[in-house]
Amino acid sequence: SSDLQRVTAVDATTVTFDSKIFGTLKQPKAFSNPSSWTGSGLSLPQTVTLTDMSALFPLQVGKSVRGNGTGVFQGTQRVVAAQCDVISTSNVQVPAGRFDTYLVECVYTLDANIATVRYLYWYAPAIGHFVAVNRAGSMFQLLSYKRA
Fold first, then answer.
1. CA contacts within 13 A on the Cβ side of 52
2. 86-120 as b/e, with b when 16 or more CB fall inside 10 Å?
3. At 24, phi and psi to the nearest 5?
4. Which of 8, 9, 17, 95 has CA atoms 20 to 30 A from the CA of 23?
5. Are strands 23-28 and 64-73 parallel, antiparallel or unpaired?
């Protein structure tokens, strides 16, 4: 199923948005991954504490951040290891337009290789957010945006 998300508030550290599927959600402003979202209606892992992904900024090819944390997954407390790397730059076309982006790869590993999930983010500095995400094989693209 598809989800349409609309940003409703932005402050110095947080973005708040409404999701047709998940309700009102909050995420860190500097960089977003679903394990760091909070809000009602989420089936995603909660209470994950990882290294602040804002350490990737300013984005530069070759920059990397690693971190560890914990979270409850399917009712069991798990250890999570994360590594995010700025892989390359590219110009991408999405429904919202054409953007110069940095490709950021994040790999999350549960309990020393029980499971590994790979996310790719195409982050557009011009709008301060990603314009496309491949989350474990599912692709998401920015449909539209406007500056407040």
1. 8
2. bbeeeebebebeebebbbbbbebbbeeeeeebebb
3. -85, 130
4. 95
5. unpaired
Nearest to 130 by CA among 73, 68, 71, 57: 57
For 58, other C-beta atoms within 10 Å of its C-beta total 8
Tell me how many degrees the CA angle 18-71-25 measures, rounded to the nearest 5: 5
pLDDT digits (tens, 9 = 90+) for 1-20: 566 677 787 777 777 777 77
What's the chain's Rg over C-alpha atoms? 15
pTM, two decimal places: 0.73
CA dihedral 107, 110, 111, 113 (to 10 degrees): -60
Decide: 23 and 41 in contact? Cβ < 8 Å: yes
Alpha-carbon distance of 45 to 144, in angstroms, equals 27
